[in-house]
Fold this protein.
Amino acid sequence: MIRINLLPYRAQRRQQRCRAFFVLLLSSALMGIFIVTVMACWFVARLDRQEMRNQYIRAENKRLDERIREVVALQQEIATLSLRQQAVESMQADRNQPGYLLDELVRQVPAGVYLHSLQQHEQQVRIKGYAQSNDRISELLRNLEYRSHWLEKPVLIEVRSALLEGYPAGQRVSAFSIHVRMRRTSDVQSDKQADPSSHVS
């Protein structure tokens, strides 16, 4: 017996296809939403992690800045202490300079020269005295320039004729004034080490 399907199968098939299409469309939309949500969560997590790293780096930079300021302050303090130490060492090394100065003048002042005034300001020394003649003053200048280890760069400031008590009446002497530079102990010791054959008193 032959059976004939008189139902509208084409309309049913169309409806099935429409349902399948809407199911597929809904599935695709849900899958897209899921993928977008997952990607958004992943990016948010990455951003949060990066922000945490940035905060850590900022905190470390701040800590390093504080340490750098501490180091700079320590360096300045060390430099100040070093200058103080050098000043103290210089004062300790130069405390015997007056003795060296007097000893050197005894060695370098020629006969016929009489010193009556001696003033020292830091490394500058002013010498005043009398000499029997200008030749004696020239000899004193040569001795200070070429033979003295402690005195250098003598400069003749003044020479004048003067009367001196105790001298025969009418006999004049040469009154003079000299500036000379006193060398530091460290400089003299450096010269002695550079040239051991030189004798430093």
The chain has four helices and four strands. Strands lie at 113-121, 124-131, 151-163, 172-182.
